[in-house]
Amino acid sequence: MIPTEGAITDVPGIRVGHWTDRRAITGCTVVLPDRPAVAGVDVRGGAPGTRDTDLLAPENLVDRIHAVLLTGGSAFGLDAAGGVMRWLEERGHGFAVGNVRVPIVPAAVLFDLWHGDPSIRPDAAAGYAACEAASNDKPAQGNVGAGAGATVGKLFGIERAMKGGIGTASIRVGAVTVAALVAVNATGDVVDPSDGSVLAGARTSADSHHLLDTAAAVLRGDMPPRLQAGMATTIGVVATDAVLDKAQCRKLAAMAHDGLARCINPIHTPIDGDTLFALATGSSGKAGNLTLIGTLAAEVTARAVISAIHHATGLPGLPAARDLGGVL
Predict the structure, then answer these.
(1) DSSP 211-258
(2) Sign of torsion over alpha carbons 250, 255, 258, 260
(3) Which residue from 32, 70, 108, 318 has the fewest beta carbons nearer than 10 Å?
(4) Residues 227-254: what's their mean pLDDT?
(5) Could you tell me if 275 and 48 are in contact, meaning their C-beta atoms sit under 8 angstroms apart?
(6) What percentage of the chain's residues is helix, strand, coil (to nearest 5)?
(7) How far apart are CA 72 and CA 324, in angstroms?
(8) CA angle at 7 for the pair 5 and 8, rounded to the nearest 5°
(9) In this structure, how many other beta carbons lie within 10 angstroms of the beta carbon of residue 9?
(10) What distance in Å separates the CA atoms of residue 137 and residue 8, rounded to the nearest whole number?
């Protein structure tokens, strides 16, 4: 098992807050830098649900953001960004436009309407509450925030899936910290990069605690009877205290996706909306070597995914890895 220590809050000036609704089994998570941070994004899945991602292109005007929102509730959950904006506006944060300040809050959603009450989704009040809960402490992991209703191993249907969640990890090398926070809600299985073993994913049947191994099943010609579009998605944030510009942040987000590819199989499918944001606070004062920081970002993203599975707890009819003995 790869190490999963640390948290995205190990990057100085980064706070994280969760809002979770146990009735709906959904939630949202906000990442709040103390000061506006340079940001980029890379969207790899074929069914994304996002907000304000176009403005993160290097050629576009705004070069810093005030928060990132990760949320459940499918596209409905984007309403939670309004609450994050209100919380920031009340505190005087935002991009100055005349006498008005407009907080910049990029967001990404995942589909978690399988369980609980699907009519309850993160809304503006939920986003505001997540900001109120934000702190520099290591955030809770597993079935909280954007990971509350996350599931994995859905290629052969939700009835054979397992519980996903949200996880975090960090690495410090020299004077620079690189960290990740990932809500794991994948179509594919989650595998241990150290040996390729499946930790959580599709089961052999709806009432089984035995893993199918999705990739092996497809290779031998065992195909799912149907594919349900847009009902997965792994979303997350990588952050560093190195000094990076907007173009470098976009590349950092792209390199972090390699971490997803190491431990989720399949990944970046047409029925996932996989999206990663990258933040650079610059608080270390050290210019970032993108090759090295990107390498660390891929590693820490993989660690965050494994940590999400490690901390996930099962729901009725939806076991977690710990229920199978896969994670101790």
Answers:
(1) B--HHHHHHTT---S---TT----EEEEEESSB--HHHHHHHHHHHHH
(2) negative
(3) 318
(4) 92
(5) yes
(6) 25, 25, 45
(7) 26
(8) 145
(9) 22
(10) 10
Q: Which two tokens stand for residue 13?
A: 């000036």
69 closest CA partner among 22, 112, 131: 131
Sign of the Cα pseudo-torsion (85, 164, 143, 172, in order): negative
The two structure tokens encoding residue 204 = 């052999």
In whole angstroms, give the CA distance from residue 130 to residue 227. Answer: 33
Q: What is the three-class DSSP state of 36? A: coil
Question: In whole angstroms, what is the distance from residue 56 CA to residue 142 CA?
Answer: 29
DSSP H helical segments within 23-111, as ranges? 80-90
Tell me the sheet residues that pair with 236: 182, 276
Per-residue pLDDT band for 116 (boundaries 50, 70, 90) equals confident
Nearest residue to 267 via CA among 291, 236, 313, 246: 236
Tokens of 100: 């008005």
Domains and CATH numbers, the chain: 8-322 (3.60.70.12)
- Give the closest residue to 160 by CA, choosing from 221, 234, 212: 212
Tell how far CA 44 is from the center of its chain.
Answer: 13
> How far apart, in whole angstroms, are the C-alpha atoms of residue 64 and residue 328?
40
* pLDDT in the model for residue 304: 98
| Position 183 pLDDT exceeds 50 | yes
Cα separations in angstroms, 250 against 53, 90, 186, 284: 11, 29, 22, 20
Helix (H) or strand (E) holding 295: helix 290-311
**Region for 259 from its dihedrals, namely left if φ exceeds 0, alpha if ψ lies in -120 to 50, beta otherwise:** alpha
Say which DSSP state 205 is in.
Answer: S
> Does residue 240 have a pLDDT over 80?
yes
Position of tokens 């609704």? 21
User: Rounded to whole angstroms, how far apart are CA atoms 241 and 33?
Assistant: 11
